[in-house]
Write a structure and sequence with these properties.
Layout: H1 14-37, H2 43-56, E1 61-69, E2 78-87, E3 93-106, H3 109-117, E4 128-129, E5 135-141, E6 146-154, E7 164-175, E8 183-194, E9 203-211, E10 217-221, E11 229-231, H4 235-240, H5 245-253, E12 259-262, H6 264-274, E13 278-280, E14 286-288, H7 292-305, E15 311-313, H8 321-328, H9 334-343, H10 346-353, E16 361-362, H11 371-379, E17 384-388, E18 405-409, E19 412-417, H12 419-422, H13 432-450, E20 458-461, H14 469-483, E21 488-490, H15 493-498, H16 517-521, H17 526-543, H18 550-562, H19 572-590, E22 593-595, E23 601-603, E24 607-616, E25 622-631, E26 637-639, E27 644-651, E28 655-665, E29 669-679, E30 684-695, H20 700-734
Helix pairs in contact: 5-7, 5-14, 6-7, 6-10, 8-11, 8-17, 9-18, 13-14, 17-18, 17-19
């Protein structure tokens, strides 16, 4: 049974504190006796040595425990312990030996915590040394030099007794010239879980194995049919390459009985790499990605690893639920983004992995929850929330760790992961010693939890989202030992969530004020969600004009999901840069459909046509646009007989379309004309184009004067014609200049007879063939040109 010290914010019992102090005194007694036999050291030197020892609590020799196998031994096993000892002092250590020490069984989980805190303190009781031939001796340990040791001992020689968790230590004893007696100079404590037979009952353990990464894909795609994606960098290729972090997570997890937790964005990103991709370069350009084969291989391995395992899919890009709950719900449209990230999962995971994922789990960062986080998580359809026992703390007085599942109301289940087990493999585990210690403590906590009560329980372990390669290796080593041990059986997450809750376990969600301040500082700010909303509004106005909306809506929709990713925590500058790049790229695309600027024009006459050109530099057609031409001074110039006139616009990809408007002048002077594109729902699209039109209309009086002058010219010409005809007739009658005709008459032609000559009757004009009536004035506008206008085109009149 566990005591009160198993739970947070409670201190060890008075009895335990007394035992620890007594042990410290007993350990220090030989040292005190030895000091009394030595010549007294100079006061300054003695004080310096004492303060150093007190500050560190550790000896002059450091002990690194690199391997301890088997990690959870049983009867008949041989325990192998190896590592190094390093003399960190200034004096050589002589007559030294490395020994193994076994302490008493630890009855509570808090006792394990205490021993971890004192793992290298030579002042604390270290247990009984096994001794005999199970030691390794060193004649001399030179300062600054490390020596390797390896000891094998049958488990039967350890006198472990009953099943349980035992304190276990590797120590270095020896003497120095300044202190020439055998003493404990260095120690490394750890744990020896011992379960000789299968426990009854066993703990049903669920271990989450996350395949999650940071954001890698941008919103940019190529203009080709494949829409080749553009990546921020090639870091994902490094992660999935042999030896990379995600490669390690995959290969290690494939041999374990775990529940896979995947981010659909990671799968989609790797899948996109298999078909070709481009990577941003430092100069703002892109270069072709070259790791298609690596991506194909990794995806094939994932498909094989999860073929018969449970797969839990998070919403696309693993959105930061706490940031959304605390800073995003007040921004319109933010919750719809979360819903979209959830809805897209089914069409992403199953086609890639060929398994149907579980999608009703939400996983806030570090399992920290409050009422607003729960509300946001359930708003997107999740009815199970993975939290952690350091957030949903036990306050009901239970003397053992309860099962993970807790009903918290509204049909929602909190799946409470064990905080001790979940946080065991954090920090730097690159050294073999650190990894070994983490594995032994994890197993010790698990076995201690199992021994708390005879009640069967379900326990969930939710590690950090993105373990390093070394952390993943330690996790796999611990799970391998656990799953081959005698006190735990594996269980899927859905089964743990459905398990019968422990009576009396806490179900009350902590208040908002209990949310950890350190986590709150890492959240996405409100301005981030405002920027996302602005981008989405721009996307909504842009997509309505596109003939193939999926080319834009899909990549930008996924990019906005990525802007809410929990992976941005601790990287505010990178997060802001990504959001700004998405918004800028969308603006750049939208600007590809625009009006061509026009120069000021002149309009002579009563009417004219004004051409306006719409340019489409996208690769796809655009339609559902309306072009409106407005006159700011309709008393001087009207468009189509009104203040403004609209015409629908449809432009093929990579082309321009010229739209012509009929105008009518009402008075001389200058009028400003505004051209503006609108979507069919009446929203302005793009920037307007404004230009001036100078009207120089002809008045009625001027037109009469011009008409009269033209008529006079026609009459004068007619008179000259008739006079010439008369002269010719007279010449024909008189036979020459001396005949009846006057000197101006010409000779008569040979065919003419006297009757051929026209005679004028008194009071009448002679008639001739009408050469034509005076024409109407030329039209104000010639026929419209069907050719498109260029930049700065003139007005057709």
């Amino acid at each position: 049974m566990a005591d009160a010290a198993d739970f947070p914010r409670t201190s060890p019992s008075p009895a335990r504190r007394w035992l620890r102090r007594t042990g410290a005194l007993l350990t220090g007694a030989p040292l005190l006796a030895g000091l009394l036999q030595l010549p007294s050291a100079p006061p300054a030197q003695a004080a310096e040595q004492s303060s150093a020892r007190e500050a560190a609590g550790s000896g002059a020799v450091s002990v690194a425990l690199d391997t301890l196998t088997p990690a959870a031994p049983t009867d008949g096993d041989t325990l192998t312990v190896s590592g190094t000892v390093t003399n960190n002092g200034k004096q050589a250590v002589t007559d030294a030996h490395v020994g193994l020490r076994v302490g008493s069984a630890l009855s509570t989980r808090s006792a394990i915590d205490d021993l971890t805190d004192d793992s290298t303190d030579v002042r604390t009781a270290a247990g009984t040394e096994v001794g005999g031939k199970y030691v390794e001796r060193f004649a001399k340990l030179t300062p600054g030099v490390s020596e390797h040791f390896s000891i094998q001992v049958p488990v039967d020689k350890l006198d472990l007794g009953d099943d349980g968790v035992y304190a276990f230590a590797v120590s270095l004893s020896g003497m120095t010239s300044a202190q020439p007696w055998d003493q404990l100079l260095g120690i490394q404590r750890t744990f020896l879980p011992y379960q000789s037979e299968e426990a009854d009952p066993t703990t049903r353990t669920t271990y989450l194995w996350p395949l999650i990464s940071t954001v890698h894909m941008t919103a940019e795609t190529g203009a080709n049919d494949q829409q080749t994606p553009v990546f921020l960098n090639d870091d994902l290729a490094k992660e999935i390459a042999p030896g990379g972090r995600l490669d390690q997570m995959l290969s290690l997890g494939a041999g374990l009985d775990v529940t896979w937790v995947v981010d659909p964005d990671l799968l989609a990103s790797v899948d996109a790499m298999t078909r070709g991709y481009r990577v941003r370069t430092g100069d703002g350009g892109t270069t072709a990605g070259t790791h298609q084969a690596v991506a194909k291989s990794w995806l094939a391995q994932v498909q094989k690893a999860v073929a018969d395992k449970e797969v839990v899919a998070l919403p696309f890009a693993d959105p930061d639920l706490a940031s959304l709950a605390h800073n995003g719900t007040g921004v319109a449209g933010s919750l719809s983004r979360l819903k979209d990230a959830t809805d897209v999962v089914a069409n992403t995971v199953e086609p890639i992995l060929h398994v149907k994922p579980v999608t009703d789990f939400a996983w806030p960062v570090n399992g920290a929850v409050d009422p607003s986080i729960v509300k946001v998580a359930t708003s997107a359809g999740a009815d199970k929330i993975i939290t952690r026992s350091d957030s949903l703390q036990e306050t009901s007085g239970l003397t053992y760790t309860p099962s993970a599942a807790r009903p918290i109301g509204g049909g929602t289940t909190a799946v409470v992961a064990d905080a001790r087990l979940s946080t065991e493999f954090q920090g730097d585990l690159t050294s073999a010693s650190a990894s070994t210690l983490a594995v032994q403590e994890f197993l010790a906590q698990s076995l201690s939890l199992n021994g708390q009560t005879d009640t069967a329980r379900s326990v969930v372990v939710a590690p950090q989202r993105m373990p390093t390669a070394s952390q993943a290796q330690a996790m796999a080593q611990a799970l391998t030992a656990l799953q081959s041990g005698n006190w735990s059986t594996s269980q899927e997450l859905t089964a743990a969530a459905k398990a019968k809750p422990t009576p009396g376990a806490t179900t009350r969600i902590p208040s908002a004020s209990a949310y950890p301040a350190a986590l709150r500082k890492q959240q996405l700010p409100r301005s981030a969600f405002q920027q996302i909303t602005a981008t989405e509004a721009k996307l909504d106005s842009f997509q309505v004009i596109l003939s193939d909306r999926s080319r834009v809506v899909t990549p930008f929709g996924r990019a906005m999901n990525r802007e809410m990713s929990a992976s941005w925590r601790g990287r505010p500058a990178e997060a802001e840069s990504f959001r700004s790049a998405v918004a800028a790229h969308l603006e750049e695309l939208a600007d590809q459909v625009k009006l061509i600027d026009k120069s000021d024009t002149k309009l002579s006459g009563r009417s004219a046509t004004i051409p306006v050109t719409v340019q489409n530099n996208l690769v796809q057609n655009v339609d559902h646009l309306v072009l409106r031409l407005s006159s700011t001074n309709p008393t001087r110039l009207q468009i189509g007989g009104h203040d403004y006139y609209e015409q629908p616009v449809s432009v093929s990809g990579g082309h321009a379309q010229t739209v012509k408007f009929t105008t009518s002048a009402k008075a001389n002077g200058q009028a400003t004309v505004v051209a503006q594109l609108y979507t069919q729902d009446g929203q302005a699209y793009g920037a307007p184009v404004t230009f001036d039109v100078k009207v120089t209309e002809f008045t009625a009086t001027v037109m009469l004067v011009i008409g009269g002058g033209f008529l006079l010219l026609v009459l004068a010409g007619f008179r000259m014609y008739t006079q010439r005809k008369r002269a010719a007739a007279r010449d024909a009658e008189g036979g020459g200049p001396d005949a009846a005709g006057g000197p101006g008459d010409g000779p008569r032609g040979p065919e003419e007879g006297p009757g051929d000559r026209l005679k004028e009757e008194p009071g009448t004009d002679a008639r001739v063939d009408d050469p034509g009536q005076p024409s109407d004035p030329a039209p104000d506008t010639p026929a419209e040109s069907a050719d498109p206008s260029g930049v700065g085109e003139r007005v057709d009149r």
